[in-house]
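Lecture notes, unit on binding sites. The following record was shown on slide 14. It pairs a sequence with coenzyme A.
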Amino acid sequence: MRLARIAGTGHFVPEKVVTNNDLAAAMDTTDEWIVERTGIRERRFAEAGVSGTDLAVEASRQALTESGWEASDVQFIIFATLSPDMYFPGNGVLLQRELGLPGVGALDIRNQCTGFLYSLSAADAYIRMGMYDRILVVGAECHSAGIRMDERGRDTAVLFGDGAGAVCLEVTTDADGSRLISHYLHADGRFAEVLCVKSPGAGQKPWLTTEMVDDGSSHPYMNGREVFRHAITRFPEVIMEALDGEGLTPDQVDVVIPHQANQRITDAVTKRLGLPREKVLSNIERYGNTTAASIPIALSEAVKSGTVQRGSLVCLAAFGSGFTWASSLLRY
Ligand code: COA
């Protein structure tokens, strides 16, 4: 039977560290407020002119090296982001160009915080069905370009950071070995406007005006309390769905890697599942919320530190804008 396994991981974050105090110099917020409400102490911002694709190139190269692949081994690319370099075309073709792979197919996934897991599931299906043997899956964000760095942006600006993560997926026939096991994908579009960027958007004509820029609709809008309320229910639910699917209990999982939305959300999920803190990875303190990049960055860091090793049973889970929520279970 054809299955997919992660051959290697990579991640990259920009050098520039932006602390909570740096943000407090630009807007009415404090280090204490941000740390207490979110657990975030600093995040990385790309320099002007550096895009999500640029970050993805670095993460991808590292994943290729760790996998022992040449770029030319990549047969297909899936790129998850909510902060593409251009409105269109998507970042997939830009990454394909930078990696020097003309003709290789490139798919963009726009599922925000769950984008990496939706991408992983699609790549898994392509490999299982025999369409490809080797797929590069990337999540990357350049939030700093779209964050509103003034008073009116403070409720979202403090949350987000830039970064990229990547995995190389390859075919395997070892049904007990290193492999992707399952994916559970959900959405509820009734909450689409609870966390969104409305403009530019062809749901309105024209899709972007100076008034829209002035009134903030080209920046993220979020009802934080509503997001929080749903997140602390959906995260444990979708993790348990993955475990129940295999007849597992939370204590049998080696590592849970939740999308890094907010430390308070991660803590609530950890408590609900009755997991020890050290099993639930967190790097939000250093990077903030990097949306589609947060899970592959955390996974790559965990592989490099030895927290995730070959044979580890790992559950990935995410919740975010859409609303969408998802989990993937894998044996690393
Ligand atoms: N600094 C200081 N004060 C701020 C602030 C900031 N950066 N942002 C908002 N505030 C103020 C609000 O204006 C409000 O003031 P008021 O009481 O005078 O009206 C007060 O802080 C409380 O705001 P509220 O939004 O109710 O705070 P909260 O306790 O819900 O925390 C979040 C806000 C965003 C941290 C929290 O709702 C959250 O984490 N939500 C989930 C967000 C998330 O994970 N998003 C990504 C999804 S993937």
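Take-home: Residues 29, 33, 37-38, 113, 154-155, 158-159, 222, 224-225, 227-228, 261-262, 265, 289, 320 surround coenzyme A (CB under 6 Å).
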